Amino acid sequence: MQDMNTNNEDEMLKKFFGENKTEIADNGFSRKVMQKIPHEQSKDWIVWVFAIIGMGLASYFAISTGLINSLLMLFTGISVYYLLIAVFCFPLVTFLVLFLQKNKYVGLGQF
Amino acid sequence: MRNTEDIRCVAQVALFGDKSAFDKLTCKYQSSIRRFFMNLTMGDAPLSDDLAQETFIKAYLNIRSFKGISGFSTWLYRIAYNVYYDSVRAKKYYSDIDVAEIDKNFQTNNEFSSDKIDIFNALKILRKEEKTAVLLFYMEDKTHVEIARIMNCPLGTAKTYILKGKEKLGVYLKNAGYEYK
Questions:
Q1: Which end of chain B has fewer beta carbons closer than 10 Å to its terminal beta carbon, N or C?
Q2: Is the pLDDT score of A84 beyond 90?
Q3: Residue of B nearest to A36 (CA)
Q4: ipTM score above 0.90
C-alpha cells in the first residue's frame, strides 16, 4: 500500500515538474558569456618554435654524421621483391588487426 | 550532442583554448542551467542569468580540472550548485536573514514567475537541500548518484532529501487539489 502511494506521488511529481519544465531561449546569453570570458594569449608559437628547433637539430646531425646517405644506400639496396611483398602484405595485416579487434569487442560485449 | 561530443569539446577547450567549442557547450547547457537557477531563486530572471554567467565563466576557467569521471553536465551542475550557495551565503552575511526570506526577496513579478507561481509556491515549502535535490531529480532528470556528486553528499543523504521533498510536495499538491490522473 505504501509502495503504491510512493509510486503515485512519484508519478504526480513527474507530471507536475514535467508540466512546469520549460526551455529557456538563448536570447544572446551565450554571446554575453563568451564576451565575458577572459582573453588568453595563444601559446601555439611555443609548439612551432620547438618544432623548428627540433627539425633543425635533426637535419644537422643527419647531414653531419652521414645518416641520410646511409639510409639512401639502404633503401636503394632493398630488392624490388621485398617492396612488392610489403605492399601486398599491408592490407592483409590491416584486415587481420581489424578482424581481431572486432572479435574482441563482440566477446567483451557479451559480458 | 552526445556525451562523447561534450568530452571532445572539453578537450578542445582545455588543450587549445578553443572558444568556439566552449560556445557550443554554453549553447547546449544554458537553458537547463538557467532554468535550475530560475527555480532556485523563485523566478528572479536577472539574478538567474548572473549566476548562470558566473557558472559558465568558472567552468571555462577550471575546465582543466574536469576529469571526465562524471559527465560534463553533472560537473557543470556541481559548479552551479556552489555558485548558488555562495551567493546565498553572501546575501545571508549582509542581510542576516534566513534562506526562505531570501527566496521571498528574490521572487519578482516577471513573465516567467507569473506563469510558474504554482511551482514556486510548492518549492517554498521545502528546505533548500530538499529543493535542490528534488529539482535535480524531477526537473533536470539527474540520477541519485549524480545528485550526490553535485551536492557533494553521501548517496543515502541525497536519497533522503529527495524522499522528504517528495513527501512534502505530495501532501502540498494533494491539498492544493492538483489533478494528476
A1: C
A2: no
A3: B57
A4: no
